[in-house]
Amino acid sequence: MIRAWIKKRRFFSLLILWSVLAVFAASCGTKSNLSPEEEVLIKGTTFSFDKKAYPSDQNLFPAYKLVPGDILDVLFQVRSWEKKDEFRIAIDHTITVKFIHAPSLNETQNVKPDGKITLPYIGEMMVAGMTVKEVTDELKNRYKGILREPVDLYVTVPEYSTQIKDFKNDLHTAPRGLSRLVTVRPDGFCTFPIAGDVYVATRTIPEVKVILDKRYDAFLPGLNVDLFLEKHSGATVYVLGQVAQPGAYKMPKPINVIQAITLAGGTRPGADLKKTLVFRLCKNDRVATQVDVEATLLVEDKSAFFYVYPDDIVYVPPSRSYQIAEIMSEINQILMFRGWGFSFGNSLYRDPILE
Length: 355
Fold this sequence. Notes:
Layout: H1 2-26, E1 44-45, E2 71-78, E3 94-99, E4 107-110, E5 116-119, E6 123-126, H2 132-143, E7 153-159, H3 162-172, E8 179-183, E9 189-192, E10 196-199, H4 205-219, E11 223-231, E12 236-241, E13 247-250, E14 255-256, H5 257-263, E15 276-282, E16 285-291, H6 293-297, E17 305-308, E18 313-316, H7 320-337
Parallel strand pairs: 1-17, 12-18
Antiparallel strand pairs: 2-8, 2-11, 3-4, 3-7, 5-6, 9-10, 12-13, 14-17, 15-16, 15-18
Helix pairs in contact: 1-7
């Protein structure tokens, strides 16, 4: 019975010593390959599908794409001074029709919501979307069989900016004047005044501006917007594993894995930098790669700074020896709880009781 207990004691003692030596051995051999005053160029790299555009030569993101939580400042502009290729009549425009030889038929009317006006003898006529010349020719054709006198008439549009004036008045009376703040929702959409819901996530600000300008110009010719990023939710990298402070960290510019780990407070004892993992979203899938951070720190041949992208996940795993040490620590706590004790004296190798 005593002999069996002693054998168990020797076994666990040897196992604990082995784990301690393994941890000590893992901490050795971290000498840099760089000689004093020697300079070595270390290039940057990243996932194969992003290498062409990232990181850029200016150490900037290729293009900022909107994400949920971003706030846009929408500044409205009505460029009524710009020359148009052609003028077409629209709803709420005021139209005057004058007959040279029959002034009693003269009419001044606003284009109704259905796009029509009503004139003597011919009744309703669609004018919205037509040019002044097209309306003039159509009226001459319709009155040709009605009037005895030669059909000599002309059409003018004395008031065409009522809608623009009303829109400007509405904007000026609002708290922010000509601008509005809109937030990108979790579903990727923004709700813009008049234009309604527009999907903006994963799009750049210039791309969103093109979409909005088309919608607003269709509503009111000459109306367009300028977009400003009022507040951004921020590019974020997630660092976890054997780091001091695992969590999500903002990255206002491109950073590499070493910088990401630094943001997390550096590594904890037992971190295996040789097998650091980086996960990145590619289309609808997550792609993973292993990065040898230790090789970069030691300036080994062909080492490179691996750059992370917003929403990347960086995982620093524990080393094999550290895992064993953790297991042995737990075993030791269990045995100590049961009243077993261990020492690392000579008895680890020579037990007088067994001799």
